Every structure is written in structure tokens, then in C-alpha cells.
């Protein structure tokens, strides 16, 4: 959605850019700033600076580099969402199998994008994130989890190497679901879209959407990615 040039209404998305490379930030600013629905309200070169900028500007969306000096994108995502659970954070990475991306998604990031994402897709996903929609395609969800969901090295300060504890916790959460809701959750874990789930489980798309909404509430998650991670941790996918 693009704001009409004569409309006095505010932009649909207020965005902060967080990346330690000034050239990357300049490129993002040029791409996103060209859309009238988006306003770049701040920039930061590392995670510590990002906290200050986000506090001062109160954006809707943060584009977050995952690997930065002083404080990385994972720790910064956790810190920002602890202060503002409604904040939409899209992590940026050069690698589509970055182990830190999974950590950020576990922490509640809305999704992730590669830094070479086409401009039109970048704009579309930022606006979708601001509207509360996922910015990670179902197929990429499955690929990412399959690629990087391995135990972290002990003592790395990120995801604890406790697969059995994660499995137990995930299974306890999934036990809250009805049989049908569990089927939908497992389908999301396999990377299926709503239409694919509808066809596979012989339901209408609106019914699938209703089940997904209940999963968000019962599993206490913010997006489909976290549903898929829960299913993966429970070893039910």
C-alpha cells in the first residue's frame, strides 16, 4: 500500500536501520525512503546505539543486522523486545543459514531477509511487518530451521545446548492444543502455507487462519516462525 501524494496521513511504517556498514544503511535508506508509505526515522551502527535510537524515535519496524560489533543483532533483538513486545524486528543477514538468525527468531523477531533481497520485496515486507504480518515465507521457514536448528556450542552465550530441555518445554506447550490445532502446527513446521494446509487437511483457508490465530494465543508466540520452531523442538515435525 502506498500513501497518496496529496494525503495528509502519516506513513504506514516508521523504520530504524541498524547495520555496522554505512554503505548498507545508505542502500536501505535509498530503497525504503523512495516509498511514500515508509519513513526512515533513525539509524544505528551497532546494537547498543540501536537501543538509544529506538527509544528516541519509537519506530514500528527495525531492520536489524545480525552480526555487529559491541552487541550483535540477537542480543539487541532480545533487549528491544523486552522493552517493546509490539516492536517488529526483521533481521538482516548475508547468509540464508545463519545460526544466529534462528536465535533471533526464537527471541521474537518477525522474520528475516537476506541483504540481497530485491528492492520491491524489501519494501513489501517492511510494510507487511508494520501491519503485523510475517516476513518469512513458509518454505524459507522450513529451510532455515532444517539448516541451522542444531545445538549451539556450550558457553557461546546464545542458545543453550539443552535440546532435551527444549524438547520437554515444547511438548508441554503443544499439549495445550486440540488434535486439529496440533495438525495445523505440524503443517506449519513443515513449511506449508495456509492454502497448502487447507488442501492437505481438507479445511477451508478461513478455518486454517482461525486455527493459526488460536496457535498464536495458546503457544504464546508472535509469528509462524515460532510455531515452527516449537514443533521442531518437540521433534514432532
From TrEMBL:
Response regulatory domain boundaries? 14-130
SMART domains referenced in this protein's UniProt entry, alphabetically: HTH_LUXR, REC
Q: Which Pfam families match?
A: GerE, Response_reg
The organism that produces this protein has a lineage beginning with: Bacteria, Bacillati, Actinomycetota, Actinomycetes, Micrococcales
Phosphoprotein: present as a keyword of the record?
Answer: yes
On the tree of life, the source organism's domain of life is: Bacteria
**What is the originating organism of this protein?**
Flavimobilis soli
Q: PTM 4-aspartylphosphate: list the residues.
A: 65
Q: For this entry, list what GO says about its biological process.
A: phosphorelay signal transduction system; regulation of DNA-templated transcription
Q: Which GO terms describe its molecular function?
A: DNA binding
Q: Keyword set for this entry?
A: DNA-binding, Phosphoprotein, Transcription, Transcription regulation
Q: Which InterPro entries does the record cross-reference, listed alphabetically?
A: CheY-like_superfamily (IPR011006), NreC/VraR/RcsB-like_REC (IPR058245), Sig_transdc_resp-reg_C-effctor (IPR016032), Sig_transdc_resp-reg_receiver (IPR001789), Tscrpt_reg_LuxR_C (IPR000792), WalR-like (IPR039420)
The protein in question is named: LuxR family two component transcriptional regulator
Domain HTH luxR-type: residue ranges: 170-235
Q: Does the keyword Phosphoprotein apply?
A: yes
PROSITE patterns cross-referenced by the UniProt entry: HTH_LUXR_2 (PS50043), RESPONSE_REGULATORY (PS50110)
Which CDD domains would you find in this protein's record? LuxR_C_like (cd06170), REC_NarL-like (cd17535)
Amino acid at each position: 500500500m502506498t500513501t497518496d501524494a496529496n494525503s495528509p496521513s502519516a506513513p504506514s511504517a516508521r523504520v530504524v536501520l541498524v547495520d555496522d556498514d554505512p554503505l548498507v544503511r545508505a542502500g536501505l535508506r535509498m530503497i525504503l525512503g523512495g516509498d511514500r508509505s515508509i519513513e526512515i526515522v533513525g539509524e544505528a551502527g551497532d546494537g547498543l546505539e540501536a537501543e538509544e535510537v529506538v527509544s528516541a524515535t519509537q519506530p514500528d519496524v527495525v531492520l536489524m543486522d545480525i552480526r555487529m560489533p559491541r552487541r550483535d543483532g540477537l542480543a539487541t533483538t532480545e533487549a528491544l523486545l523486552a522493552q517493546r513486545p509490539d516492536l517488529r524486528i526483521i533481521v538482516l543477514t548475508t547468509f540464508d543459514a545463519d545460526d544466529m538468525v534462528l536465535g533471533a527468531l526464537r527471541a521474537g523477531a518477525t522474520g528475516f531477509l537476506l541483504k540481497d533481497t530485491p528492492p520491491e520485496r524489501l519494501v513489501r515486507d517492511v510494510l507487511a511487518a508494520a501491519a503485523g504480518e510475517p516476513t518469512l515465507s513458509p518454505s524459507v521457514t522450513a529451510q532455515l530451521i532444517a539448516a541451522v536448528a542444531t545445538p549451539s556450542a556450550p558457553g557461546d552465550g546464545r542458545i543453550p545446548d539443552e535440546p532435551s530441555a527444549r524438547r520437554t518445554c515444547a511438548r508441554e506447550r503443544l499439549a495445550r492444543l486440540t488434535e486439529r490445532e496440533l495438525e495445523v502446527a505440524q503443517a506449519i513446521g513443515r513449511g506449508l502455507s495456509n492454502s497448502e494446509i487447507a488442501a492437505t487437511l481438507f479445511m477451508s483457508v478461513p478455518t486454517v487462519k482461525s486455527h493459526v490465530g488460536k496457535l498464536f494465543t495458546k503457544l504464546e508466540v508472535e509469528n509462524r516462525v515460532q510455531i515452527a520452531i516449537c514443533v521442531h523442538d518437540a521433534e514432532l515435525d
